[in-house]
Amino acid sequence: MTDEQVNFESMALNVRELLAGARPQWAPLYAKMVADFEALDAALGQAGTQATTLAAGGSTGYTSAKDLAEVAVLDAAMPVLRGLKALQLDAPDPALAPLAAYTRTSLDELRDLTQVKTLRALHTVALARTAALAEERVTAAQVAALDAKIAAFEPLVGTPRQATTAAATLREQSVASLGAARTALKRLDVRVPNLVDDLPELVAQYKKARIIVDAGHGPKPDSAKA
Fold first, then answer.
1. How much is the pLDDT for 217?
2. 25: left (phi > 0), else alpha (psi -120 to 50), else beta?
3. Model confidence, pTM
4. What is the pLDDT of residue 96?
5. pLDDT tens, position by position, 98-111
């Protein structure tokens, strides 16, 4: 990524961390802001995985990137899998039983396209049960994060030569993901100030976090770049 993109992503991650930590305070007050925050969260998750993949070069780098992406997708699968297991407690569904029987270890033991296919199936059943999963403390953002991590991992399943072709696509996806993060931040810039009467300290911290340090040129407000 360029210096500007790195600086923007660093700022956006700081904003995400701030809003994620304060979510119990602002979310009950401002339901409409939840979707904007989750859009930012998903975009940054995708951009981070794509950047990690693009940083690797050659077959050794390809293998390392694939391993990192596999760890990331398994991390994302765990809360969804736990939610499906919880759903089986009250109303066992035979159709869910094969997926709910998986553990991280057994998912890790799957290889390549079989692993991707299984993770896709996990996401598909979760997407159809978002309301029920929400009652088991699995959020729509977590389901979306699994989809994003699968999308980042899947192009790496293959040969290093195939990965070279996939890198061009990943670069385009990385730029698009940062663009989605910019869009989400612009929406948050409008909504966060509306919390000033209830959460003035959060609004002040948000404005401070929304400053980008442009490499070698000092701080600049994001509005100058957006």
1. 42
2. alpha
3. 0.46
4. 92
5. 999 999 999 988 98
First to last CA, the chain: 17
pLDDT tens by residue, 33-80? 999 999 998 888 875 554 554 444 444 444 577 888 899 999 999 999
C-alpha separations of 192 from 21, 23, 42, 197, 213 in Å:
15, 12, 19, 11, 21
CA-atom Rg of the chain in angstroms: 19
Tens of pLDDT, residue by residue over 2-28, are 667 778 888 999 999 999 999 999 999
Secondary structure of the chain in HEC code, one letter for each residue: CCHHHHHHHHHHHHHHHHHHHCHHHHCCCCCHHHHHHHHHHHHHHHHHHHHHHHCCCHHHHHHHHHHHHHHHHHHHHHHHHHHHHHHHHHCCCCCCHHHHCCCHHHHHHCCHHHHHHHHHHHHHHHHCCHHHHHCCCCCHHHHHHHHHHHHHHHHHCCCHHHHHHHHHHHHHHHHHHHHHHHHHHHHHHHHHHHHCCCCHHHHHHHHHHCEEEECCCEEEEHHHCC
